[in-house]
Design brief:
The structure is a homodimer. By secondary structure, chain A is an alpha+beta fold. Chain A is built from 3 helices and 4 strands, in the order βαββααβ. Chain A is about 30% helix and about 35% strand. The longest helix of chain A has 16 residues.
Chain lengths: ~100, ~100
């Protein structure tokens, strides 16, 4: 299993619309990419104001999903909820 | 649901023993804290070499878990698998 995480760093002047993110942006990602799972993090404490974790069955499945035409619309939608430059991480999920 | 994530930044000279982390350190955390879930991230690409995500039923349950006496032994064990200073994040898990 692969986890594709996107983190939004907290910073002075950073804006983030959590409602839009939950109700519009992440659902758009799910409809476009069909991940195995999707969970949002709304910060309580730490360096990020928010994050999202998508899981995919494999790296190949993830890469094919992100290559969808709809990814351009997802990128264009980011300005509708934040002015933060996101940080991306791709990892293999390991169960201890 | 609360997610407690610990991220290990990648850097020149950073060391990280993924086997020890999976087989010894994270199991020690699970035995000590009894989280609702625990998953490790082994980096494929991004700013972190590894991460772990523990979930707890609430912030209060998490705080009580981390206050356990065994947390000192967990902290002392970090030097056995990495020389990296970890980054911690606490978030509310939101399902889109």
């Amino acid at each position: 299993m692969i986890r594709f995480s996107v983190f939004y760093p907290a910073a002075d002047g950073a804006t983030f619309d959590h409602d839009y993110y939950r109700d519009t942006h992440v659902p758009l990602c799910v409809e476009t990419w069909h991940p195995a799972g999707a969970e949002i993090d709304k910060a309580v404490d730490g360096p990020y104001v928010a994050a999202v974790h998508f899981t995919f069955d494999s790296l190949e499945v993830m890469q094919a999903a992100l290559a969808a035409d709809g990814t351009a619309a997802i990128r264009a939608d980011v300005a509708n909820y934040t002015n933060v430059e996101p940080v991306r991480q791709v990892s293999e999920v390991v169960v201890p």
